[in-house]
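Something for you to look into today, if you have time. What I am after is a single protein written out in full by you. I want to see for myself how the chain folds. Could you add the entry underneath, on a fresh line?
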Amino acid sequence: MPRVLCAYFPAWSLQRNRRQRPDLRNRPIALTRPIANKGNKIAACCSDARRLGVQPGMMQTEAVATLPGLICVEEDLDADRLALVQLAEWAQRFSPVVGLEDAIAPTCLFLDTTGCDACFGGEERMIQAVCEAFAKNGWCVVVVLADTLGAAWGISHLLPSPSGVSGEEGELRNPPNSRYVLIPRNEHPAFLCDLPPAALRLSERTLTLLTQLGIQRVGQLMMLPRDQLAERFGAEVGLRLDQALGHVAEVITPFHPEPDASASWRFDDPIERREVLAKAIDLLLERLQAVLQKRCCGTRLLECTLELDGADAIRFECSLSRPARTAHYLRSLLNTRLEQIRIEAPVRGVCVRAVVLEKIPDDQQSLFDADEAGDEALAELLDSLVSRLGQDAVTRSRFVADPQPELACRFECAVAKAQGFAALTPGLLESVFAHRPLRLLSRPIAIEVVAIAPLGMPHRFHYAGTDHTAVFCQGPERIETGWWRSADVRRDYYMVETKEGTRWWIFRRLDDGRWFLHGCFD
């Protein structure tokens, strides 16, 4: 007799968000869903938010007014499914047949464990190992092993917890709430009898009708004649009941990881002519483009491997600033890299592979796309420069939240994803950096300063062999670093305007009273 294991993840979307964003743990969180012309509605919320008055179905504005500290995250079903797919791939260590729940928003995995228990020393140890493995990785899960897929699903979702704590209370904050239930062979009907009809995976309309008729348990449906079930509720109730009881077979659709987005070519005889190699790469890029189009994806990292005859293989990569898939565009980048490589032996085979895949949104273009055209031209320029000069030679600045001015900027690869404060709006940039110099020295320069008072504003300073007299001085602005650093930095900054009309940014180091020049506003 077949055995099916169901691993159900209560509040899956909340778990996934808290797992991927540790800053959301132990904080009230709600998932929002956009409603046309009405704003966002709360689709789900954690137990903390419910205790403080937030309920699913509320509008986001009402929920935030009820709980000002509520963290609202937009619902992302694609990200939820992708995370569950990754878990399915990981769960293949317990069974070769792993499948996702057949639903728009799946929340559980099915494993065909027929005969697998012998590898773990019995079903009890196997199901315990599965539950502990998920919990060890930080997931709150309910694992049920039964004879049928329908029974395993219904019992995992609706069987009351013996401790009285619902699975949703875990929500990744308390993984020990994970539990498992082993249903002995041929005893699943007894477990199903006392469960509500929702355990049969019925539609909302059917469940509403059953409630109106006073049917509150699956056992009541089992006692009704089948012809009356079909006459009153259609074929759905009878089919789901037969699937749960094992009278109708239900097969798990196995999960198979998608193969790599790649294309390869092997020559009959090793070749030495570069034009033949370039032609083969062109054909491979066209095949790769077709694969990426089917997946609605583009690549941000393209790898090319040349298998040599009697020598080690050559691998080189092309990084892109935005996902792309057109063969013509990728060809130009690969050819630029290929020109810089010395091939010391005949080529026996070649393979191109899209290493990093990203979705390409299907955006409708407007009539005047000047800004989009400019962004696209910039991306093409960056890709071309990186392909020719290398990633380390083409960089861009990125703002970092650091109080020490010379450390508030980092340089990263120009084709890396934007992070930090890279998306600051012009208005916000003006407000944040209005009191910062246009040119900041990488290292402050020690200067001699004459101050009005020992701890007062600077009156005159000497720099580059010239004395500068201040006619206007603004400050001080105190800047200090955190205590957790090895050496504290404590400075008083002043903006000084001289007789010549130049404006300088200088500071006094509070530890020893020395003065330094750090930047110029002109």
User: Anything to note?
Assistant: The CA atoms of residues 504 and 520 lie 5 Å apart. Residues 163-176, 418-424 have pLDDT under 50 and may be disordered. The chain is about 30% helix and 30% strand.
